[in-house]
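In this section we turn from sequence analysis to structure. A common task in structural bioinformatics is to predict how a protein folds when a small molecule is present, because the ligand can shape the pocket around it. The inputs are simple: the amino acid sequence and a SMILES string for the ligand, here fe (ii) ion. Study the lines below before reading on.
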Amino acid sequence: MIISQRKVYYNTNMLKLLLIESNERVLRLLSESLSLDFDAKILSCFKPFDAKELINQERPNLIIIRNSYLIDDEKVDIANVIMNHLYDIQSKTPVIVLGEFDFPSGGYEVLPDRFRIEELKRLIIKSLKITPEQLRLMKLPDYVPMAIHNFHLMETASSDIYIKLDTRDEEKFIKRIKRGDSIDHNVIKKYEDNLIQYFYIKKEDHSHLLDQLLQQSLQKIVDVAKSGKSIHEINSETYSISQNLVDAVGVSEQTVRLSNIAIAVMSKSIEAHSELSSLLKDILENKGSYAYKRNYLISALCREIAPHMNWGSGEQLNVQLEKMTYLSFFHDIYLRHENHLKIFNNSDVRNLDIAAGDLVLNHANMAANLLQSYPKTPSGVDILIKQHHGAPTGVGFVENYSSNISPMAIVFIVVEKYAFYILEEKIEDLKKLSVRKFIINRLYDEFHLPSYKKVVDILSRLVIA
Ligand SMILES: [Fe+2]
């Protein structure tokens, strides 16, 4: 279907809105939407110093700010800091605070943590005293652009999705995905490869779609805020393994810190699901166990190599890392014996009794089913768990690895084997370059396909100078 629309030209006398928020995805969604809705220039930052500088230099018409967030694990009551600053410089700039907030003076409005976009827009109109006539001039075009990367996080299209074709004097919009259709992420990737940056949504569907995307990120902010204190407490060493082991595989201090936070967040978010929660607890409370050390090592290694893996950036990367944390701790959740965790081929299963053999052959499939039964876990993690020994069905072990499985499962397979070899060595021996080289060479001997070999290349760069 092709629909035409005249090009829309914006005026140059723009409003300036300052967004102060640490969640990159929320920031991006709000920036895109508000710049269109209010024909506004959007400034953004999250550090208190930068925020004050921007306020002093740019004199924004309105400030939208999160009540508080973590910066380097420290809780910062950012709205409080900024309200004090406005008071000090005697500024009357209106402020909208996202999340519970109270301040003795100044003009500010408060929205709940999980606000809807229409509520925010209403408050902006109220705070800036925008008249209906001005609003009419700011009216959205009939088709509203939305950055294409957002659609990677959607499973189903909640509205029709269009692409735009530019001709010399008009724009044409062609429907590409129908409302209710499931979103094929390979198709999205193809558009990106062809340098298409935006999909277009009809104006009347825009708020609904934006809300759908916003709510996922806002929920995470609320979860982290609620568990903020305990994460900080837990973070101090509770989830760590020996420094020597971490050093031996080239995992940085920063990665250890972020891994610990990710484990704490995961642990917190499955609290309500007693089966998942108690299985995870069994591992987390046995820091000396092989299972704990291996899973921790895998999850930290995945995080360390993530920047080299084309997993996107910002919130998109965080989503992938969250999946890897779940995958690391749940893939072998049904295996209770250390020797079962060390089986990587069907022939070793023959030495086990029937019940143990059955369990080992089916453990990937069973764990995938368990995770699938709990919809709050990151989407797609069940598939990765199923594929973690290379078999798409989650049953048994493959003779030859193939590239017919998810790229993230491939990374995981190589990293798990690496963690296995590392833990077979004594810590003192891992300090020797020759031992580390020997382990990397074992991986090269085993993984020949380019997609697997690439992961070995990255691991080797971490440990062989
Ligand atoms: Fe396994």
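The longest strand covers residues 171-177. As an exercise, try to locate the residues that line the fe (ii) ion site and compare them with your own expectations.
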